[in-house]
Amino acid sequence: MAHNEELSEFLRGRRAALRPEVELTGRRVKGLRREELASLAGVSVDYYTRLEQGRPISPSEAVLDAIASALRLDDAERAYLHTVARRTPTRRRVAPKAQSVRPGLLALIEQLGDAPAFVLGRRTDVLASNRMARLLMADFPAMPARERNAVRWLTLDEGARSLFAADWCQVASDMAGVLRMDAARHPDDPRTATATRC
User: What GO molecular function annotation could you give as one example from this UniProt entry (predicted)?
Assistant: First the structure.
């Protein structure tokens, strides 16, 4: 069974950091007990225990908000709790599927005539480009596979800097934003970290 270690560590750490309103002598548990936190959040002890163990369950927004309130989380911690609770634990890494472009889309970008167009895939990989994009920007199909990446091209190719001139910073910033969104959607993708490396 897969476990969500981030959620487990976060919940245990935050619970341990809380202090009971009344200190009891002889208390052996640091912070609140699971039973006390479950009671404050209005969930069963069993359910909270399974969450804290990182079991693959999907708590509702209301349950997460109740737990966040019981743990006295600030806004950033609350947002983090929601993020890690929604993350699906993976058992093993699966090789990414090969990216492809539908024939209809290829035909469409070729019909754009004088307008340069290209199709981006995961990690801003350039999957296809029309004739004008190959003439004006770069001949992506002629590049080695690992170099066919829009962010890589924008940051490393002097021709890209010359092409966009004064707008280069904005274009590069926008493209880096696209790469960041892809990384957020696919946090376990090992190739995302190397998308712009030389």
Answer: DNA binding
SS3 content of the chain, % helix, strand, coil (to 5): 55, 5, 40
pLDDT tens by residue, 161-170: 999 999 999 9
The DSSP H or E segment spanning 119 is strand 118-120
Buried b (16+ CB within 10 A) or exposed e, 88-122: eeeeeeeeeeeeeeeeeebeebeeeeeebbbbbbb
pLDDT value at residue 32:
85
Q: Say how far apart CA 112 and CA 11 lie, in whole Å.
A: 53
How many angstroms separate the CA atoms of 34 and 141, rounded? 58
Instruction: Report the alpha-carbon distance of residue 26 to residue 159 in Å, rounded.
Output: 72
Q: How far is CA 127 from CA 42, 162, 164, in A?
A: 50, 23, 21
**168 is written with which tokens?**
């280069």
All domains in the chain, ordered by first residue: 5-86 (1.10.260.40), 103-194 (no CATH)
Q: Tokens 């699971």 — which residue?
A: 34
Helices (H) and strands (E) in the chain, counts: 10, 2
What does the pLDDT look like over 67-97, one tens digit per residue? Answer: 999 999 998 888 889 888 886 555 455 556 7
Q: Are 164 and 155 in contact (CB under 8 A)?
A: no
Decide: pTM greater than 0.85.
no
